[in-house]
């Protein structure tokens, strides 16, 4: 694109181009201002000043550069991992001229989920997990940006169950200790009874007889003793 400035002046006027960007920036000396490859950042108001020794005059022109949406920026609140049952807000924004229109899609689904820059999901469930993308579009083009959402289980029931289990375990510990103490006591009692001395009765044994003839001789002697006693009488 080329901007050309001209005026009727005698002597011939000198030309200077300025860009207003909060303040005036001098860009070029001469009647023409050339943009070899104009960019979106070139959108601004430009001033041409024509001046000679007799005076000065200026003229302004506004350049509005139109362009397709840049890569959208997608944000999620409160976070990318959402607790089941909570709400989530997706926000999409893109630099575009003219302003972009936004459409929300979920991956592997043909129908759009919502339109507009903000997409709210209430009562987030497991089936809501997946990849979402925001499409920003104007008459010059379209651009998409993807975001993945995943649901995490609500930890409240888990905490309640853990607490209940802990209470049960703590309640069983004293009972277990009592059972162990009673078992140990019973074992010690049985051991004491087993260690008591056993009373035995010893039977006196008669003389050993090596053979049957010795036994017969003793019997004969016992039979003779009364006869001797009768003689003494």
Question: In a few lines, what is going on in this structure?
Answer:
With 233 residues, this protein is of the alpha+beta class.
Give a structural overview:
- By secondary structure, the protein is α+β, with helices and mostly antiparallel strands.
- Among the domains are: 62 residues, Sandwich (Immunoglobulin-like); 82 residues, Immunoglobulins (Immunoglobulin-like, Sandwich).
- The chain is 27% helix and 36% strand.
- It contains 2 helices and 14 strands, in the order E-E-E-E-E-E-E-E-E-E-E-E-E-E-H-H.
- Strands 8-14-13-10-11 form a 5-stranded mixed β-sheet, with no helix packed on it. It has a 4-stranded antiparallel β-sheet with strand order 3-2-5-6, with no helix packed on it.
- The longest helix is centred in the C-terminal third of the chain and has 41 residues.
- It is elongated and about 130 Å long.
- The C terminus is likely disordered.
User: Can you identify the CATH class of the domain at 73-154?
Assistant: Mainly Beta
> Taking all residues together, what is the mean pLDDT?
78
Kindly state the number of beta strands.
14
Number of helices: 2
CATH architecture of the domain at 73-154: Sandwich
| Global outline | elongated
Largest sheet: 5 strands, mixed
Low-confidence sequence ranges = 155-160, 198-205, 226-233
Distance between the termini: 175 Å
Output the helix-strand order: EEEEEEEEEEEEEEHH
**Cα-based radius of gyration, to the nearest Å:** 57 Å
Strand sequence of the main sheet, in spatial order? Answer: 8-14-13-10-11
CATH superfamily of the domain at 73-154: Immunoglobulins
Strand content: 35-45%
Under CATH, the topology of the domain at 73-154 can be stated as Immunoglobulin-like
Helix content: 25-40%
Structural class: alpha+beta
């Amino acid at each position: 694109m080329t901007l050309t400035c001209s005026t009727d002046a005698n002597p011939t006027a000198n030309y200077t181009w300025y860009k207003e960007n909060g303040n005036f920036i001098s860009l070029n000396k001469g009647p023409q201002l050339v943009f070899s490859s104009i960019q979106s950042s070139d959108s601004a108001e430009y001033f041409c000043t024509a001046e000679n020794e007799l005076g000065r005059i200026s003229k302004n022109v506004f350049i509005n550069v139109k362009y397709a949406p840049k890569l959208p920026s997608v944000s999620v609140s409160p976070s990318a991992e959402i607790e089941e049952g909570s709400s989530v807000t997706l926000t999409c924004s893109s630099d575009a001229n003219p302003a972009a229109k936004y459409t929300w899609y979920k991956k592997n689904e043909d129908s759009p989920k919502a339109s507009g820059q903000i997409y709210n999901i209430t009562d987030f469930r497991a089936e809501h997990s997946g990849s979402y993308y925001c499409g920003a579009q104007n008459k010059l083009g379209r651009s998409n940006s993807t975001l993945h959402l995943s649901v995490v289980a609500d930890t409240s029931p888990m905490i309640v169950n853990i607490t209940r289990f802990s209470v049960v375990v703590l309640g069983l510990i004293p009972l277990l200790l009592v059972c162990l103490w009673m078992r140990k006591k019973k074992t010690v009692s049985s051991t004491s009874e087993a260690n008591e001395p056993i009373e035995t009765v010893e039977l006196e044994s008669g003389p050993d007889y090596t053979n049957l003839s010795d036994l017969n001789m003793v019997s004969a002697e016992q039979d003779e003793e009364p006869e001797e006693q009768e003689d003494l009488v």
